[in-house]
Design a protein that fits this description.
The complex is a heterotrimer of chains A (152), B (175) and C (748).
Chain A lengths: L1 E5 L2 E5 L7 H8 L18 E4 L2 E4 L12 E3 L8 H12 L9 H14 L5 H8 L9 H14 L2
Parallel strand pairs in A: 1-5
Antiparallel strand pairs in A: 1-2, 3-4, 3-5
Chain B lengths: L1 H18 L7 H7 L2 H4 L9 E2 L4 E2 L12 E2 L2 E2 L34 H9 L9 H10 L1 H5 L14 H13 L6
Antiparallel strand pairs in B: 1-2, 3-4
Chain C lengths: L2 H6 L3 E5 L34 E4 L3 E4 L4 E5 L8 H13 L6 E5 L23 H28 L7 E3 L2 E4 L4 E4 H8 L48 E6 L7 E6 L1 H5 L3 E6 L4 E5 L2 H10 L1 E5 L8 H11 L5 E6 L2 H7 L2 E9 L11 E6 L4 E5 L4 H12 L6 E5 L15 H13 L3 E4 L2 H6 L7 E9 L5 E11 L1 H7 L1 H9 L7 H4 L13 E8 L14 H18 L4 H6 L6 H13 L10 E9 L2 E11 L4 E12 L6 H20 L5 E2 L2 E2 L18 E6 L16 H13 L14 E2 L11
Parallel strand pairs in C: 4-5, 9-19, 17-18, 21-22, 25-28, 25-29
Antiparallel strand pairs in C: 1-28, 2-3, 3-4, 6-7, 7-8, 9-12, 10-13, 11-12, 14-22, 15-20, 16-17, 16-19, 20-21, 23-24, 24-25, 26-27
Helix pairs in contact in C: 2-3, 3-4, 9-10, 9-13, 15-19
Classes of the chains: A alpha+beta (152), B mainly alpha (175), C alpha+beta (748).
InterPro entries (chain B): Multihaem_cyt_sf
Organism (chain B): Spongiibacter pelagi
Keywords (chain B): Signal
Chain lengths: 152, 175, 748
């Protein structure tokens, strides 16, 4: 039995300790916004925040989460930066298939929280772990710059 | 004059290798320490490497100020304290890059040996501390249980410790 | 007419991706509301909204909302938004109240492009096929609303106007919303015809609108196939043979069944299904499974062997697909003939959402949820495998986390696999593919060999041009499938002729009198191949457009001028060529950089692309900029057309630098995004896309941005170093990609 803090709510789940956080979120807690893409931390579609830091939920065993606060895409609108990121993503038509965008938005929110005026180099370092097969990178970059210039 | 100058120059160029001929005791240690499992995170670069081909880490992973990644992509975003995903994602406690002072890339055996012993570079470790570190540190031990189909250093861990012990007992000769 | 004058009359809509200035993005119809913590977001409840359905394609709510049913699948290209725009335009709907949803799988929603025989979101055919009929639907419902208002007001319908969801009587200044009229309107017949607007009357078509699904794609609330969750649902994974067409011989399931959570193991023709309470348990169970495979008839396709076979076949004449003039006499009279051979490997689509299907099958009826580009055929296959009439199958088309052709398999492989599992389980089950299953699962872009030749007469002009391809197409599979015959028969035998499906012509348009294109369609039934975004154009345009630069360089001609001077019969090609060259400042590459250009037209769209790049001594490439000019006829939503070109460029660069699936004695060697690399953010270059405004019918947009990127880059490399690129991916030739930090990135 593991007790988790997810989006400010405490949940207790009865799962094996090696079950990744991603699958606990998706299957046990029915929070399907975080996506499965690779299962090996290669694509970033499963990115969630643990105590504010982006992590790959698909390789994070539930036993490693402990008391760290888990935050997912379903809750990021309640974060001032996250809400701005979502709004800008919509306004610039960033998503295409949209499957990777939960992870992209979690990564971008972490970036802009840590560094409100990232350079292109900063953007590349923060976002290159998140694959977008539709190739929305130019718009992700543009959205982040827009947020940086608009002040988050 | 000219031929003499040339031969002097040649002798000078050859000097470092002649003068710094490596210690036979250190050579097997060198071969372990420069194996990709060790060297990929003992880089002199601002980023780690991966694979036996030692390519730059795929996700544009960066060293960061504390050698554990940048705030937006910590090493621990993916690497746990043990190997996961059937070994596809390697992991060990305090997974991260070695500090730049402990960068071993492109060092000759003698240079690596000297740096290894240099307490201003090695985290103020005595030879005994080094032996202890190599014997027990979980991240060092990971090199021999790297998961997946990763190769391991040329000596197994007990062999490595025994050659390291012999080197330490001999006073850590580099030449 | 000179190129300049034709160009100057065109209105250019110039959108720089990086600069971004002037891009108007209006608000879409759906409101963004963060969902609560434990359930997917629900539509906002505004009290008793009554929706009236008109025909098959739309519903109008008492709140004046419009819901459009779309027969094409949303795979990221924005088709739900695009078709809704076409309908809303002719209906004069209030765009802020428009929603779009996937239609049921039914003949009414079949794409007219495919002879109205099926719903199939392939061949960049959705807007091409649905544009006119869907506008007619909108226009007819608009007329119905006018007629209903005229009856209510007792006035002549001819004097009434419509605007943004209202019928307006300009004489009395009265107005009434469609929502208010919708109940009355149900009493009347929908007019059989109605006049369509002319392009200058458009208010929605041709404007850049926010995607209708944008909000649900940024808050995690959109339910993809993989997110479907139904009561008592189990999860299954399938252990598949290491080689295609292998079969399980001996299965020891004891260890698998001992894994907590694993409930059942089923030996099937295609493999062994492990059924569990959840995905993690199913995966563990599969790893614990011990299977001996029967590989007597399994595929032994080997990449190296296949390449040498294809290269041998290039020496033999193939089936002619285009014969202009007389190539052989021209070759005999030629001063010289130049020849070059090309080779391209298998590639995986690698869409972000691994394949998955949810089936609830109890023996008498079935409900299926899956992200698919080919729902009609999927459903028919399901009915055959489950032994149910199609009427007993409720098939839900789900939004797809990428498709690129992989979800448009006319053989329905993933649905058929899932049906086999469901037939054995007879409980609600989600059949999941892991990333590794997806990567190793076949149905790749087929490998291809191409031979180009050009014969030059004594004046140095091209007197003959030949283009020969050796490749494998899914057509070979279709012919090989007994089941497919049954499906075609079941569907009334109206599927398009199979030779129409295969389109190998590269649409070579340059002024050359004698042209021969032929191909060898290799049948390898054990090696599943499929179309992948831009299909054979990826390989054939690469060969054509790089070979053209080699020929141009023999006479010292500039590659742009060389093309420009040979397009007397292709004005739309010429216009995009000029537009791209102008926008890229052709001939004025920055210091140390070179440019390459490539051109093509297909499916009523035309594109020219210019790559400006620098290359280091150790073959590291920095792409400074990729400039595209596209004429896709009417751009229904210009911003989404631009987005498709951007998308195509990134997709193409992944293929060009990295894309390769290799087989070693039948075993696929790649498994995940580490050994099958795709482009990442730091490799994404600056882009500028010029959209040429046109009122021609819409052409295809989803694929045309892919094929020219490779040859334009290779031509820039050729210009810089003289090296000819005759095979891909570039990684195999020692080329690598530098970090591409776009210089203008900070200016938006």
């Amino acid at each position: 039995m593991y007790t988790l803090q997810v989006n400010g709510i405490s949940h207790t789940v009865d799962v094996p300790g090696d079950k990744p956080l991603l699958w606990v979120l998706r299957e046990n807690l029915k929070l399907t916004g975080s996506k499965y893409g690779c299962g090996q931390a290669l694509c970033g579609a499963c990115t969630v925040h643990l105590d504010g830091h982006p992590v790959r939920a698909c390789v994070t065993p539930i036993s490693a989460v402990g008391e760290q606060a888990v935050r997912t895409i379903e809750d990021i609108a309640y974060d001032a930066v996250g809400a701005k990121v979502q709004e800008t993503w919509q306004n610039l038509n960033v998503p295409q298939c949209g499957y990777c965008q939960s992870g992209q938005i979690m990564a971008a929110t972490a970036l802009l929280t840590d560094n409100p005026t990232p350079t292109d180099r900063d953007i590349d370092e923060a976002m290159s772990g998140n694959i977008c097969r539709c190739g929305t990178y130019p718009r992700i970059r543009r959205a982040i710059h827009k947020l940086a210039n608009g002040g988050v | 004059m000219k031929p003499i100058f040339a031969s002097l120059l040649l002798a000078f160029l050859a000097l470092p290798q002649l003068a710094l001929a490596q210690s036979a005791l250190f050579q097997p240690i060198y071969e372990v320490l420069t194996h990709p499992r060790c060297l990929n995170c003992h880089t002199k670069t601002e980023f780690p490497r991966q694979g036996d081909e030692r390519r730059r880490h795929d996700q544009l992973v960066m060293r960061g100020e504390d050698n554990h990644g940048v705030p937006t992509l910590h090493c621990s975003a993916c690497h746990q304290d043990h190997n996961v995903a059937d070994g596809a994602v390697p992991g060990a406690p305090h997974w991260g890059l070695a500090p730049l002072s402990m960068a071993w890339e492109e060092l000759s055996p003698v240079e690596l040996c000297q740096n290894l012993k240099n307490t201003s570079l090695n985290g103020n470790r005595s030879l005994d501390d080094l032996l202890h570190h190599m014997d027990e540190d979980a991240l060092v031990l990971w090199g021999w249980e790297p998961g997946g189909d990763r190769t391991t250093p040329p000596l197994d861990h007990p062999e490595f410790i025994s050659v390291l012990t012999a080197w330490v007992n001999a006073g850590g000769p580099c030449q | 007419m000179s190129a300049e004058s034709s160009l100057s009359r065109r209105h250019f809509l110039r959108l720089s991706i990086i600069a971004g200035g002037g891009l108007l993005v209006a608000c879409g119809g759906s409101s963004s509301k963060p969902s609560n913590n434990l359930s997917p977001s629900e539509p906002e409840d505004n009290g008793p909204i009554v929706e009236q359905q008109f025909g098959d394609f739309l519903k109008i709510g008492s709140d004046n909302s419009l819901t459009v049913f779309v027969g094409a699948t949303e795979i990221g290209q924005g088709i739900l938004t695009g078709i809704a725009m076409a309908v809303a335009e002719e209906l004069d709907a209030d765009w802020s109240k428009v929603k779009a949803v996937h239609s049921p799988v039914a003949i009414e929603f079949n794409n007219p492009y495919f002879g109205s025989a099926m719903q199939s979101t392939v061949a960049s055919a959705s807007m091409r096929g649905y544009y006119k009929p869907q506008r007619q639907i909108g226009a007819r419902i608009r007329q119905l609303m006018i007629n209903t208002a005229a009856a209510r007001w007792q006035v002549d319908a001819a004097r009434l106007q419509t605007e943004a969801g209202y019928v307006i009587d300009p004489v009395t200044n009265r107005s009434i919303s469609y929502g208010e009229l919708s109940a009355d309107a149900q009493e009347s017949d929908i007019p059989a015809t109605a006049e369509l607007k002319s392009p200058e009357q458009y208010k929605i078509i041709g404007t850049s609108q926010q995607r209708l699904d944008a909000a649900s794609k940024v808050d995690g609330s959109l339910i993809y196939g993989i997110d479907v969750d139904i009561p008592d649902m189990l999860t299954a994974v399938i252990a598949r043979p290491p080689r295609f067409s292998g079969q399980p011989l001996i299965v020891d399931s004891n260890a698998a069944l001992a894994v907590p959570g694993v409930l059942e193991v089923h030996q099937l023709a295609i493999g062994v299904a492990v059924v569990a309470e959840d995905f993690w348990s199913a995966e563990k169970g599969r790893k614990a499974l011990e299977v001996t495979w029967n590989e007597l008839l399994a595929s032994r396709t080997d990449s190296e062997l296949q390449r040498s076979q294809y290269e041998l076949q290039l020496n033999l004449p193939g089936v002619p697909i285009r014969v202009d003039g007389a190539v052989v006499p021209a070759q005999l009279l030629a001063a010289e003939t130049v020849q070059a051979d090309y080779y391209f490997p298998f590639q995986a689509h690698a869409a972000m959402e691994p394949l998955n299907v949810v089936i609830d099958y109890d023996g008498s009826r079935a409900e299926i949820w899956t992200g698919t580009q080919s729902p009609t055929l999927d459903k028919l296959f399901a009915s055959l495998i489950l032994g149910l009439p199609p009427t007993q199958i409720n098939f839900h088309i789900m939004p797809c986390g990428g498709g690129f052709g992989r979800r448009g398999n006319w053989l329905g492989d993933f649905v058929r696999d899932a049906c086999q599992v469901a037939a054995a389980v007879r409980k609600p089950v989600k059949v999941m593919w892991s990333r590794e299953d997806d990567m190793k699962g076949g149905f790749y872009r087929p490998a291809a060999a191409v031979r180009m030749s050009a014969s030059l007469n004594t004046q140095g002009e091209i007197s003959a041009w030949t283009h020969r391809s050796v490749t494998q197409d899914m057509t070979a599979f279709l012919y090989g499938e007994k089941l497919f015959d049954e499906v075609v028969e079941l569907n009334g035998g109206t599927l398009p002729a199979l030779d129409k499906v295969t389109d190998f012509d590269s649409n070579f348009v340059y002024d050359v009198s004698n042209v021969l294109m032929d191909f060898h369609l290799v049948a390898n039934l054990q090696m599943p191949a499929l179309w992948m975004r831009s299909v054979n154009k990826y390989t054939d345009i690469f060969a054509q457009e790089t070979f053209l630069d080699v020929i141009a360089s023999r006479s010292g001609e500039d590659p742009y001028q060389f093309r420009r001077n040979r397009l007397s019969e292709a004005p739309r090609h010429l216009a995009v060529l000029n537009a791209a060259a102008t926008a890229a400042n052709w001939g004025q590459a920055r210091s140390g950089a070179t440019m390459g250009i490539a051109l093509m037209g297909h499916w009523n769209s035309f594109i020219a692309q210019v790559v400006e790049m620098s290359i280091s001594a150790d073959k590291e490439i920095t792409i400074h900029k990729i400039t595209s000019a596209i004429d896709c006829g009417t751009a229904v939503n210009p911003d989404l057309v631009i987005a498709q070109v951007e998308s195509a460029i990134v997709f193409a660069l992944s293929s060009i630098f990295y894309g390769e699936i290799t087989l070693d004695d039948g075993v696929v060697q790649q498994s995940n995004y580490d050994d099958y690399r795709v482009l990442r953010m730091f490799e994404s270059p600056e882009m500028e896309t010029i959209l040429i405004n046109s009122t021609e019918d819409p052409g295809g947009v989803g694929e045309i941005g892919v094929p020219c990127v490779g040859p334009a880059l290779a031509n820039a490399i050729y210009a810089a170093t003289g090296a000819t690129i005759r095979e891909l991916p570039l990684r195999n030739l020692g080329y690598s990609m530098a970090e591409q930090h776009p210089e203008a990135g900070g200016q938006s």
